[in-house]
Design goal:
349 residues; 7-stranded mixed sheet; 12 strands; binds pyridoxal-5'-phosphate
């Protein structure tokens, strides 16, 4: 058996999804004439209570378009130390938008409004860099799928906007936060000026993200999307996968959460320090190997030999992500291989 737990991006489009894609009505999206794309943009904007949305090939581009709308060259964006925007977009904000970033560290990536506001320096005058936006990641990927507390989001939004700082939500996995917490998508989005969401993570589409904001910002972002080379043509084929994903897969995310928790609990029973199941709120399990003699890369290699793939993201940090293509049988197999491998790693110490 092969169980791929490296990411929720590894899902394969189902026959039913491919069927819907194959028959999607299409048009030239650069001319704004693709009915399936237009419907998806309207649908997702409405889901989050925003005026408009623009479809992008990746979540990184959706984030980068948002940053381009909120932060001018030479200004700065604040984000958590291990946020995707800072760690996993290859410096795109600096390269594309000519901006700088500053970071605050947070355990499990958990948002505390004080942390961000303490380092914020809005309207810093002609000699110092001005903070013009703050990004919040929900759920927090490298934090282990952390769901951000609504009271902290609300507090940050109030204090940041009061001093003229805009807020961006990196909501690649906002769907998971919504399903785990029961907080409506509109409620999550209302505190932010721009929002990015991914259809290619837990929702299982092969490609597709959107950037949501006001009509004005989305109209400007469309120009930048084209400038960056991502003006696409008959992409209703891709947008159809997004529609299908929203129709059928949103409601099953709670299974991914249940399976992640199961795997975390089994690992915790063998090595308590490796993960505290309390911190497994969604479909991501962060594994802390600091109490073991092996590295994350060695651990991943040992698991791979048994057919279980995980991501090693730091010398002593690994990540497991459950998704649509992981059923209960695969979950149990992965938990068995993980616990056996942890036991042998303990014996070797
Ligand atoms: C996956 C992800 C993105 C976007 O990634 P792409 O691979 O560019 O689609 C953005 N933010 C977070 C938190 C992510 O996990």
């Amino acid at each position: 058996m092969l169980v791929d737990l490296r990411s929720d991006t590894v899902t394969m489009p189902t026959e039913a999804m491919r069927e819907v894609m194959a028959h999607a009505p299409v048009g030239d999206d650069v001319y704004g004439e693709d009915p399936t794309v237009n419907a998806l943009e309207e649908r997702v904007a409405a889901l989050f209570g925003k005026e408009a949305a623009v479809f992008t090939p990746s979540g990184s581009l959706a984030n980068q378009l948002a940053i381009r709308m909120l932060v001018a060259p030479g200004e700065e964006l604040l984000a958590e130390t291990n946020s995707h925007i800072v760690r996993a977009e290859l410096g795109a904000a600096a390269v594309f938008s000519g901006i700088t970033t500053r970071t605050w560290p947070a355990t499990h990536g958990l948002l505390n409004a004080d942390d961000a506001m303490e380092i914020a320096r809005p309207a810093s005058g002609p000699y110092l860099v001005s903070t013009t936006a703050i990004a919040v990641e929900n759920t927090h990927n490298f934090g282990g799928g952390t769901v951000q507390p609504l009271d902290q989001i609300a507090d940050l939004s109030k204090r940041a906007h009061y001093v003229g700082i805009s807020l961006h939500l990196d909501g690649a996995r906002i769907w998971n936060a919504h399903i785990a917490s029961g907080v409506p998508l509109i409620e999550y989005a209302k505190y932010f000026d721009t929002v990015s969401v991914c259809l290619s993570k837990g929702l299982g589409a092969p490609v597709g993200s959107l950037m949501l904001s006001t009509k004005e910002k989305v109209t400007k972002a469309r120009v930048w999307r084209k400038r960056y080379g991502a003006g696409m043509r008959q992409i209703g084929i891709l947008a159809a996968a997004g529609h299908y994903a929203l129709d059928t897969n949103l409601s099953s995310l709670h299974h991914d959460h249940r399976r992640a928790l199961f795997i975390a609990e089994k690992c915790h029973e063998v090595v308590p320090s490796i993960v505290n199941p309390i911190h497994v709120e969604t479909n991501i399990v962060g594994l802390d190997l600091s109490q073991l003699s092996i590295s994350a890369a060695e651990f991943a290699q040992m698991l791979k030999a048994e057919g279980v793939l995980i991501s090693s993201l730091g010398p002593k940090f690994a990540r497991i992500v459950t998704h649509l293509d992981i059923d209960d049988a695969k979950m149990k197999y992965a938990a068995e291989v993980l616990t056996q491998t942890l036991k042998s790693a303990l014996v070797a110490q």
